[in-house]
Amino acid sequence: MLWQFIDWSRERALGELERKSRAQLQLYTSHLQGQLEKYEFLPELLATNERLVNRLRDPGNAAEVEAINRYLESINRIADASDTYLMNSEGLTIAASNWRMERPFVGSNFAYRPYFQEAMRGRLGRYFALGTTSNKRGYYFAYPVRHGGEILGAVVVKINMREIEESWSRADQEMLVTDPDGVIFITTRKGWRYKTLAPLEVEVRERIRASRRYVDEPLDSLDLRIRGERGADARLLVLREGAERGYLAVEQEMAEAGWKVHILAATRPALNQVLRMLLGLLFALLLGGMLVLFWLQRRRRVRERERFKRQEQRNLRRNYSPYKIEKSA
User: Fold this and answer.
1) Where does the chain cross the membrane (predicted)?
2) From residue 295, how far is each of 192, 203, 291 by CA, in Å?
């Protein structure tokens, strides 16, 4: 009976934790999706700008170089993006919003980046990577710049993910986002950044290295063990980081980006709640038992006193004899 109560209490606490985690996960995912959608349209809009088209058609026109850089700088500031830049068909950056910086993108070739390759195929390119020049994490949108039926190059907008990450910090749960290969690139736990949920296969590592997605990060895996499944998108985990810590993990896909957003809620508070409930129950049982014992003892004493009283009364009746008056002759 007691063990059944413990199991019921534990499941009830974990169920409530899962419900809250799913609600929080939905908020995180919607916020992240909204942030991406704010910038998704911008490269396509810029790709229609005649000044950018003409810059790609006539790359030798030096008079336009600074004007285009200033234009991209202005757009980048207004949009509050991280960087905005223009690449020719060979992947060479010929104009950039960060042209005044110590390490500008101008002159850098990013032809190896998948977002550029997608744009050169005539599609919107999207990609998360660690910047090889800036060494800053960012999400990239790239769109082809056309003239007639020819793709002349691509315009790229990079957004900073750090502010999103910082806004998600909570004491009782960890949030993380993984790419299609299971690499963590956004997380509230700094030490988990660029870790993986499971060891990577050799060919996956080679593909990531070729794209320079995470530059020279080792991409080590977290020491995770699954302790129980709670459906297709939720499970109980144990993470070893010195000491073991238990988590309830819930995940949700972002199909367009190809990401998964995860919440890892610590199970200790929920299990401590069960422990407190159990201790409360045991205390109530102990108190109840003591009250019952006290009542039984008191009842026994009352009965003993009543029995003793009745016995005394019998003794008195048995030993009582009336006075006799003797007559003398």
Assistant:
1) 274-296
2) 60, 76, 6
